[in-house]
Amino acid sequence: MNVSGRIVAVVLVVVLGVVLGAAWWSLDVDQQLMLHLGLRDIILFAAAAAVMELLPIRLADGRALPTSLAVVGAAALLGGSPVVVALIAVTAYVASCLIARRPPAVLEVVQRAAGGWTLAGVAAIGAALGPATWSGSPEFGAAASLNLGAAVAVGLAVLVGVPTVETLTSLDTGWRFALRRIREEIKRNWLVGSSIAATAALGALVHPVLGLWTLPTMLLPLAAARAGLDRLALGQRAYDQTIRAMSRLPEQLGTVLPDHGVRVAELAREVALDLGLDATTVADTVRAGHLHELGRIKLEREAPAPQHELANAGADVLREVGELDRVADILAAQANVHDGPRDGVGLPARIVVACCKLDSYAPDPLEPGQRHEAVVRLVREVGDLEVVAALTRVLDRTAAREPVG
Amino acid sequence: MDGQVRLHVYVAATAVVAAGLVLWALPQVAPLQVLAVVLAVMIAEHFATVMRDKVAVSLTNVVALVAIVIGGPALAVVGALGAIPVYACRSKSPMRVTSTVFNSSMLPVSAAAGGLTYQLLLAQLGGLFPDWRSLLAITAAAAIYSVVNLGLVAGVVSLATGDSFFDAFRTIGPALAMQILYVGIAVLTVVVIDRASLWALLLMAVPALIARYGLRAFQELDEEYERLVSGFVKAIEIKDLYTRGHSERVSQLSVHVAEELGVGYEERRITKYAALLHDVGKVGVPLCIINKPGPLDDDEFAKMQEHPTIGVEILHDIDFLEPAIDIVRYHHERLDGRGYPHGVDEEHLSRLVRIVTAVDAFDAMTSTRSYRRALSVEEAIAELERCSGPQFDAEVVAALTACVRRLDWQPTVDFASEAALHGAEIPNAPVGELRRSRGALPSRRERRADASSARGNGSWGTS
Prior knowledge:
A: about 70% helix, B: mainly alpha, two-stranded antiparallel ribbon, 2 strands, about 65% helix, about 0% strand
């Protein structure tokens, strides 16, 4: 997506958020959401949210998703006004920055404020549309209560709304494939989102009974989920980083330029996204980009190897490794791209071959002269117009974003 | 009375106490409540997640605390019987009956101790759930439950292994800290059951199930990861006729030695992978040098000495290996600073580095190489002991010796087919000739002399 497209997306999201939040005032929230949020609660919610800001859940790609959203969501479910919920979200973020001794980012402050504002409105709309507030009937003491409509609305906002906004404001490939990217983002986030949504609802449910003790107890199951998901993300990162490290094996033989595998993989990821491949295939293409020269460790370094032989040797090595069969297939398919007609050869192999050639043709593809020359050479020698066109779009976008180096 | 008899008497005594408690509790509980708690205990035990070091995390503690608050100690004692069928099906040890009886007995005993603590404190403090007095009572109950539970386990471990009771009890610290988590979840559960609806428990189940999913998926991924790394290492070693399987063996034995030295689980895990990858830099050393049957000249030896540095260059951006990357960087260094390639001394060599360095040398000595046949395990141990101090850490060598004797470690002679060696002669290497270490960084003159005979003189390292 170009800059103007991204601005349009951000403006749309902000307008929608403001409108949703403003709905809070036009609905009879006192009736719909039993108001339990006093000044003391607001201060405690902000403090708890600040702590949770410091304990985000990290995904395999390194992104950190703030678990403070669970506290902010609970505040919205307890009838906090958009101003109050936004205030809790912003205070928590700023306080966490002060604790971590880093300056708050203006964009993050705006995002937190907008998120809190919107969630309060979403909860009010859900409460107005859904069934009346449900309460337990205990033998003695206060009853737990929850507005189911509001809980469902906040749950949907966390599970669907947040990933949608995240995707729309960072789409790099224009509006093409936007739905697929949103779907993938929802799928990627659903475990974290479910934990956050369930915790928010749980907090709102038990608050009438536990009062002060709500926050320290409601966040414990979420802390357990965080521990499990963080561990998983750590393992996934180690896996990907190891494949990236293994891309350096052929470089040590002296026949491949340093970081060639890393550059090819990064370019291959962008091209695969531009061509609308699904997330699994994109991941396999990136791994194939990293490992496409791996066959060199099997061949004699002194003898120059024909491309198809190198591709097949790489596939053999991966099959011996035994864990990356799909990537091995992509490497093997490269042999066909090099040798003959491409009919029937999948896009991943064609992408890797084109990116590999580009990296050898143009050491700095962002330099306009080199880029033009390399693309012409690619068209002439690779002839895969679909992939070369995508590659050109990716290079143009990258060149527009980054200064020539 | 010998150990086995004492163990059985101890288990029988625990079972008798548990049976007495169950008989005391049975008349005091409502059948439907018992059914619910028994089912909850069965589910909690069935879905226990086995984490590192065979430590299982289950929510049985939470169920016991909830039962204590809702129905008193009697309900918790009888409900604990739900664990019996799960333990009976799960146990595969030769002492299946004994372990099932013991595990099933300690839960009612712990539940009774925790429950009575809760009742006593509540009576003294006069609190009403969920005020602060009742929360204090639940916390104390959880602590007593845990102390009794772990005390009973420490007793059985002590009797079974001969270790001291207090050594076995040392795990109590982290286990007590975990009780805070259990107390919080138990309080939430009681509120949800007592003041809302059973259906609302689903809200709590979501993060709990996701936590379990994350931990289990990580375990599976870790196994995949191990296969991936092993696969890459094998792919690299495939052309090195003499050191095939070396990295795998060094990794396995290093983990054993680390365990012997009391290294924690996370460090052992990182050591496993770092040791597996310690020679990955050899991919940058020409094969003609690696597989050279005769002695290396100066240039060849210098090239060989680069492999730790190349290894670090390859692996430097694997974040989780960062705390153990020194294993790759320094695995040919010596405590006296005469190793290579950096020549650093003991100050720079962490315990994990010292472990892998000694194991690496041990495996090299007990494997056949192009320049000599394998030494026996006892000969290799003697050499390691002789070099303790200047080259190897004496404590590590002692632990390594204990491990190889316990594991009945054998020299690796099946390294490659004779055909693959193209008829090359492999000399026997008398121990006397192994008295010089090529792991040392000798003077230029010594190195020149060493270079001509290096291959024939054996090595404490792999190159």
